[in-house]
Write a structure and sequence with these properties.
129 residues, Sufe protein. Chain: A, three-stranded antiparallel beta sheet, binds FE2/S2 (inorganic) cluster
């Protein structure tokens, strides 16, 4: 199996069973984003203690790329500090996905990162003092 097929299988696995899937009643931050191009959505719930993301849940409804991206990102940032994850770049996220993403699918891939960045902005504005 070549490398690209391995990444594709990995994306499909995350799509079929997204990691950290679910909702949290009393999350420190709950943020919802929508891909304006297709209407697909992602809810992200962060539990933050001492500026560290101690838990995260994601509730994506979208295509394989967007769901896999949310799932992989949730694994990546769980347990990390807000300051560490807030500078995460789109290149890092695309590297996690591991396959070439066409310009049309870029919004799908980046929905999770946009949701994370906006969640952190909300946290810092209202709760991070
Ligand atoms: Fe909607 Fe990918 S087609 S997020």
């Amino acid at each position: 199996m070549d490398i690209e097929m391995m990444y594709q299988e990995n994306i499909l696995d995350h799509y079929k069973s997204p990691h950290n899937f679910g909702k949290v009643e009393n999350a420190t931050v709950h943020h919802h984003e929508k891909n304006p191009l297709c209407g697909d959505e992602l809810d992200m719930f962060l539990i933050v203690e001492d500026k560290k993301i101690v838990d995260i849940k994601v509730y994506p409804t979208g295509c394989a790329i967007s769901v896999a991206s949310a799932s992989m990102l949730s694994d990546e940032i769980k347990g990390k500090g807000i300051d560490e994850v807030k500078n995460m770049t789109k290149e890092q996220l695309l590297e996690m996905l591991g396959i070439p993403i066409s310009p049309v699918r870029l919004k799908c891939a980046l929905l999770s990162l946009d949701t994370l960045k906006n969640s952190i902005l909300i946290f810092e504005r209202y709760m991070g003092k």
